[in-house]
Amino acid sequence: xxxxxxxxxxxxxxxxxxxxxxxxxxxxxxxxxxxxxxxxxxxxxxxxxxxxxxxxxxxxxxxxxxxxxxxxxxxxxxxxxxxxxxxxxxxxxxxxxxxxxxxxxxxxxxxxxxxxxxxxxxxxxxxxxxxxxxxxxxxxxxxxxxxxxxxxxxxxxxxxxxxxxxxxxxxxxxxxxxxxxxxxxxxxxxxxxxxxxxxxxxxxxxxxxxxxxxxxxxxxxxxxxxxxxxxxxxxxxxxxxxxxxxxxxxxxxxxxxxxxxxxxxxxxxxxxxxxxxxxxxxxxxxxxxxxxxxxxxxxxxxxxxxxxxxxxxxxxxxxxxxxxxxxxxxxxxxxxxxxxxxxxxxxxxxxxxxxxxxxxxxxxxxxxxxxxxxxxxxxxxxx
Length: 383
What we know:
By secondary structure, the protein is of the alpha/beta class. It has one domain: P-loop containing nucleotide triphosphate hydrolases (Rossmann fold, 3-Layer(aba) Sandwich). It is built from 16 helices and seven strands. It has helices spanning about 35-45, 55-80, 100-110, 120-125, 130-135, 160-170, 190, 200-220, 235-240, 255-270, 280-300, 315-320, 320-330, 340-350, 365-370, 375-380; strands spanning about 10-15, 90-95, 115, 220-225, 245-250, 310-315, 360. The strands form two sheets. It has a five-stranded parallel beta sheet, sandwiched between helices. It has a two-stranded antiparallel ribbon with strand order 1-7. Helix 1 crosses helix 2, helix 2 crosses helix 5 (about 130-135) and helix 10 (about 255-270) crosses helix 11. The protein is globular, with a radius of gyration of 20 Å.
């Protein structure tokens, strides 16, 4: 058994939630349709903590509305979206949670020839084509200024992870572990898709492809997609987009562990339908996820050409963001980097005062990380 199972305070944090969300802010589950929401409740035996019952009731109301709007959206735009062809292969940003993928995403979407999934689209994947233009200007007050786990800005138009859209579309994902944390990690096979039945894997691909088509229907530029879980799915993504481009970013494993534990703790506290203080499963989830993710990634990257993959380090990115972006454009043959120079300068000025969270770690935990993540240490030069 890991030493972490006996170290409830192995990682110490300033606060589990740096920026608490008011009760009226939407949670990840507010975008589900009624059928998806009902199945999630039944699968977890309606085990909602009493203090989270109002949240569950509110989600039930929104789920009913989402079902209606999704039907109208499909009726109005379904045939046109089905006919969409994605002619510019996506650019995928890969890397473990808290490795700098969000910062890199924010830089690469500054390119005028790039687009991205925004927060509203990922919250309402069923009906954003129908509702985004008229609804978003009216609901700005219902989203926090900063993410719960750190100081990164949020907003309905800010980039977001398509994994959250997939879960609202009814696709199994390990992210659903957040919903009922007392039940531990769920749907771990969907991290890599390696052991998922063929029919389920094809269904996963259809849902992601349809979501990409819905965005392309509105905006035909290259989509820059950032979801850490995709690090373990390169093989599947290549089946969908054979010419896709990939940027992978690594980071000091100790920092990864500390920050990832903080990430999931804050999400559980803010988004969970249960109040849970037993974190033993969470620490095991974080340790196992990286190993699963990189067993798959290190095998799958051999399928990529030199002009399809570039590997970066977080430390280099934060030291010289503009030079890092130039290297990406040169390696992946994305065109003239000069077209986004001014946009990069503006964004870097905006975030220049950003400070990362600080955490401490005891030696027992450090030793466990060195042992269990040894492959990551060696592969990315953190020995």
